[in-house]
Amino acid sequence: MEDQKQILEEVFGESSDKEGEGEQQSGDSFDEEQSVNQSEKNPIWERIEEISGLWLYRDFLSLERQSSLLSAIEKEGWFTEASHNQAMRFGDLPAWAIELSESIRKAVWFCDISECGDSSTCDQDKEEVCPLPSDLLWREPLFDQLIVNVYQPGEGICGHVDLMRFEDGIAIVSLESACVMHFTRVKNETSNIGYDGKEDTLMVKIPVYLTPGSLVIMQGEARYLWKHEINRKPGFQIWEGQEICQKKRTSITLRKLCHAKKAKVRERKEKFLLLLSYVDHQSCE
Ligand SMILES: O=C(O)CCC(=O)C(=O)O
Ligand SMILES: [Fe+2]
Description:
Jelly Rolls; binds 2-oxoglutaric acid; alpha+beta
């Protein structure tokens, strides 16, 4: 445990247990104090049992952190026109997104400790044990592609598996309106059965309730063998028997480009690639 504490301090700096030493953090930037949600030291991750590799951390972001993120996004000026509802960025991410990535890394790392207790006996690379295996958790950068989606009430995203040009280990942070994301198994290309060999599981929709400030990690089966979708048409956003009252929803998706594609992108674009486009959310059928 001592070793782990030392590694933690090397990676993330000294723990902020030393409250009351008179050090005041100031300014409207993402300072350390602000970024440390109380639960960050003891994150409560939920493993979605039906889907291997799907993890949810409901209280990932404090209310303050959620509003700071929304202001940072607003300051980017990506959504000044009503017709803009999606922004993508590749390569070097804005400071707030890098900070968010590091918070994700930290939350996963703390999960390792709380789940395992003793790192010498714990197989951290099992999908059932922690949200990201160590090869993904310690890659650099953790993420180099960002999408911010803004959905008006009634808008969602059709069922899809994220493109193969992205590595395993995808994070989604939810802001503003809560919603239900549904997961369905990917169909095997040659037959009408799911990858688990069962036909009936194709029909099964697993609902996951995404509250503002929550973090989802998709890894392994959840990333490759399940489609995810958000249908915000009337009648689809039901949680615990109640229709969710919809407001505007913002989400931040963080991914890492696969190496070859990354090189290609770098070739084509010298530094940043910022795409601003209007996406017809949920016009898939
Ligand atoms: O908005 C979301 O929560 C999901 C976004 C998503 O699935 C994507 O950008 O690929
Ligand atoms: Fe996606």
